[in-house]
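Researcher: I need the complex structure. Ligand is zinc ion. Inputs:
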Amino acid sequence: MRNARRLRLRFDASTGSFKLTCPARMSRKAALAWALDQREWVQRQLDSIVPPEPIAPGVLIPVQGRDTTIVWDESFRRTPQLALGELRCGGPETGLQRRVESFLKTMALQTMSAEVAEFAKAAEVSASAVSIGDPATRWGSCSSQGRIRLSWRLILAPPEVRRYVVAHEVAHLKHLNHGPQFKALEARLVGPGVAEAKAVLRRVGPRLRRVGRGR
Ligand SMILES: [Zn+2]
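Model: Output:
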């Protein structure tokens, strides 16, 4: 592991844990004393924690920002089906969470690949690859080689929030920074509502990260 250059306290909302890193030359006692001083910040993080939400029969999960009930019946089709606020799943109850997640991941990749293409066309750029993952802190990233990676959990978020993140990463295909030109392109792609989408993502983000956990 690289030697930390400065004291740092990080919080992982998906696991509810804190991580303190400190330079090797600093005493453990001094580092802990510093961490204790962050009590207020620590408490704020703990307050923001939402309980884990395992995917199980009868529970509500957000899908495209809409509360959706997981309805399980062994006789239903094994591949989940989404309709009228329900996600119907058949097959054995064991593996239900995995099947629902893989259904949502497929939906996320299809939806966001189409959106990347749509925004890329508008920005007159092209992405070399689009993939999904489950990063702990970021919603999306764009490499200097033009590879866009997005959190599958964005399919749980309201569509305007997901589209904002996709447009943001597409804008990075042209500008790998957050400068004025980047901001102008982002605003052109998203249209009005960038600030609103950011605020909603901040508010619902912690919950989205808890869906499918705790089992
Ligand atoms: Zn960015």
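Model: Summary of the prediction. The CA atoms of residues 95 and 161 lie 29 Å apart.
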